[in-house]
TrEMBL record:
The keyword Lyase applies. Belongs to the Gfa family. The lineage of its organism: Bacteria, Pseudomonadati, Pseudomonadota, Gammaproteobacteria, Oceanospirillales. This is GFA family protein. Keywords: Lyase, Metal-binding, Zinc. PANTHER family: CENP-V_GFA DOMAIN-CONTAINING PROTEIN-RELATED, GFA DOMAIN-CONTAINING PROTEIN. Residues 4-120 form the CENP-V/GFA domain. It comes from the Bacteria.
Length: 137
């Protein structure tokens, strides 16, 4: 059984997960766009795993979109996404960006791509920089 650890942006919350990830979805649904403020969510799914909060469990807030499996936990201080146990599918859902240890598997699939943000299509030719570009770039 593998050991993974993670935390929020401000460091108020940290966790460990004992288990293996079975899937890694890049979800382009409109709920994930709203929840992340970006083109997609990047979530790992770990069935039959044990999530332990090491610090800051009382600082976690959870939101569930009505009548859906869309559940998001986040730090009440910095807003960073955090893992959530979804009992109905017996899985811990871990936002990939919350991990402090390396993400051990590549993305499994892009899902709900029909709902994808139009501005995120055809971005292969968009310039890439290793850091914030200067005004002249």
């Amino acid at each position: 059984m593998n050991h993974h650890s993670g935390s929020c942006l401000c460091g108020a919350v940290s966790y460990e997960l004992l288990g293996d990830f079975q899937s890694f979805f890049l979800c382009h649904c409109t709920r994930c766009q709203k929840g992340t403020g970006s083109a997609h969510a990047a979530n790992l799914f770990a069935a039959d795993s044990r999530l332990t909060w090491l610090r800051g469990e009382s600082d976690i807030k959870t939101y569930q979109y009505p009548d859906s499996l869309h559940i998001k936990s986040f730090c009440q201080h910095c807003g960073a996404a955090l893992p959530v146990l979804i009992e109905s599918i017996n899985s811990v859902v871990v936002p990939a960006g919350s991990l402090d240890t390396p993400v051990p598997i590549p993305p499994t699939a892009k899902i709900y791509v029909a709902d994808g943000a139009p501005w995120f299509k055809n971005i292969d030719d968009v310039p890439s920089f290793d850091e914030l570009p200067t005004r002249g770039d």
